[in-house]
Give the backbone structure.
Amino acid sequence: MENIIEIKNLTKSFPGVVANDDISLEVKKGEIFALLGENGAGKSVLMSILFGMYEPDSGEIYIRGEKINEFSPQKSTIRGIGMVHQHFKLVENYTVWENITLGQEIVKKLGPFNFLDNKKSIEEVKALMEKFGLEVNVNALISDLTVAQMQRVEILKMLYRNAEILIFDEPTAVLAPQEIENLLATIVELKNSGKTIILVTHKLDEIKKVADRFAVLRRGSLIDVRDVENTSTKEMANLMVGRDIVIDTVKEEANFGKTVLEVKDLSLKNNLGVEKLKNINFSIREGEIFAIAGVDGNGQEEIAEAISGLNRGYTGEISLNGVDISRFTVRERNLEGMSFIPEDRQNTGLIVDFNIAENISLRDYYKDEYNKNGKMDKGHFIDRADDLIDKYDIRQGRGPQTIVRTMSGGNQQKVILAREIEENLPFIIFVQPTRGLDIGAIEKTREYILEERRKGRAILLISYELEEILALSDTIAVIYGGEILKISDSLTQTEIGEYMTGAKR
Ligand SMILES: Nc1ncnc2c1ncn2[C@@H]1O[C@H](COP(=O)(O)OP(=O)(O)OP(=O)(O)O)[C@@H](O)[C@H]1O
Ligand SMILES: [Mg+2]
């Protein structure tokens, strides 16, 4: 097979970090080429250069034998390169078809005038959806879509521009298990139609399932390129971190104390009056990991928002250590003893244009103890950030002053985890705590969660990964259609699956 992409001695640095260090590799036309590596290894930067968003400091890229001299996404689009980014880049208040055709609208001439031919644009979008089996309501607003639907729009956007080389940056990190299966099938379908695919992922079983070859990056350097067929997932993991990974999270016998969180008759309607939560009742004790299992979109998000106080439009009662916090604001709940690791780290968990120290201080900056003579004690937060960068292995370029936006996705997640866990509060909500983390970081994070359990914290774990729930939880509640169908400390995987799909009640 011919090489459609050739990268030669490519280097890219940012202040304090060499993101790509003298990388040379080739991608063959029509293959699925996977890229793996730890959080911050340089995967997204390499893909962004290929897509023309950054210019390399040195080195060359050839597409179909032609050297790239000018780096810009517009030029890349013309060269037939498309990218679905780790964090989507859609216009929220535009419709699906408007986003797909943006900048490539069909124009019709009427005498001396040019008109946008919206009808034709919509027809073409619909035809594309049908051809690749990627259905989305063309007239829906992006802001009303689920994450999986938004991703479909991003893929359609590439296809609409006739992209031949499709880059997917961690596309499955945001998807539920059955959506992942659909996406992987789509990717194989695209390959069969002649496209070349680059797939960035932390999930080795996905690579095993669909990829032909894979490359491993470690701290900016290319470690190896291999055939998937002849490599086990264990070998992949070892190549990634440069040592054997021992997965042995130890979960001690449960030792529950008094009830910390109590939720009574929690019900919630959305702004269209649709019931999203129906009479939810549960409680969580000290030292207990209480997990909510379910298919994405069955009310998990609403439970997290209600308990954290992000959405207070519910009925029912929530109490924390015996205090009714039902009407408390987010900050008041935090002061009462609640930490919260939200699902949407970029919008809810962080202020991405602030630096690490400032993000670490978000919970405390206003408190008297950190303010002297009306001035905030910045030194305190810088020292604290320094400690947490060490403890949580947060990879960054400029220490506590690193702007969070410039950090890799997984490392942004570590900043939230560090801030919330280190608050040392009696109750913690973890929503998808390991999303986007590499294997090593996942193990560490699970270890942190178990450590909090050991310390007697009450923990609410909301995760779409059954494997994670089974590994960590003491008690499992299965949610379906906004209702908790079952709460138990002894459910098998099969039983959970049956409740999750509503097959069993
Ligand atoms: N715009 C930028 N400014 C400064 N540093 C950056 C910028 N973009 C990336 N970096 C740095 O380059 C390094 C590689 O980041 P990259 O996003 O490529 O990692 P990654 O392999 O995609 O990790 P993850 O799995 O967490 O997404 C990181 O140390 C990051 O902080
Ligand atoms: Mg990345």
